[in-house]
Amino acid sequence: MHTGKADALALPFAYLQARSGGVSLKVFGGIMLGISFVLINNLSSHLGLLRDWTPWIVAAAPSAFYLLLSLAAFSWLVRYR
């Protein structure tokens, strides 16, 4: 499995307040988030084939979910940091 996308997703986590420490934990969290995206994307595509769901909805659902998740995390960062 190629982890190039997961590494690219992890980079922004490393640059959030690098002086406060815990950079490795942020990078690890970003990598786990990227891997979970790949797994959920594969799962939704297989479920879409099995259940005969509309292909464009199945393809867009994981991206839309992670977009909403990132917007929620960003709004939390703006509000509480």
Q: How would you characterize the overall build of this protein?
A:
It is built from three helices and no strands. It is mainly alpha-helical. It has one domain. Helix 2 packs antiparallel against helix 3. The longest helix has 29 residues.
Attribute tags:
81 residues; mainly alpha; elongated
How do the SSEs run, as a string of H and E?
HHH
Distance between the termini: 36 Å
How many helix segments? 3
Sequence stretches where pLDDT stays below 50 over 5 or more residues:
none
Structure classification: mainly alpha
Rg estimate, integer Å: 15 Å
What form results from the Cα inertia axes? elongated
The number of distinct structural domains comes to 1
Largest sheet, strands/sense/barrel: none
Strand content: under 5%
The total strand number stands at: 0
Approximate helicity band: over 70%
What's the overall average pLDDT, rounded? 83
